[in-house]
Amino acid sequence: xxxxxxxxxxxxxxxxxxxxxxxxxxxxxxxxxxxxxxxxxxxxxxxxxxxxxxxxxxxxxxxxxxxxxxxxxxxxxxxxxxxxxxxxxxxxxxxxxxxxxxxxxxxxxxxxxxx
Length: 115
Description:
The chain has 115 residues and is α+β, with helices and mostly antiparallel strands. 19% of the residues lie in helices and 27% in strands. It is built from three helices and four strands. It has helices at 10-13, 15-28, 79-82; strands at 42-54, 59-69, 99-101, 110-113. The protein has a two-stranded antiparallel ribbon. A two-stranded antiparallel sheet has the order 3-4. The two termini are 15 Å apart.
């Protein structure tokens, strides 16, 4: 996916150094979500665009956007060696939290967002 951006993004993504660093990190990175690890995920902001309420079905649907942040220690590098202080990744390339509804309409957990 990032290959489509190689030329157009070069100027603000750190150029060839960023691509080499991204390849280096990807060669050692496992974004598996099945690991039994605790991770702290912060909710930075929530924007609700629209809410639907169905009183008959006793159902509420909220449409909006959540901004989450976390520290992934597996994505780290020496800034002096690579001369880069930040790097962009697509969500599928790194670990991302899986949101689970804890009070679902039916018994069991429902996944709200999945990779």
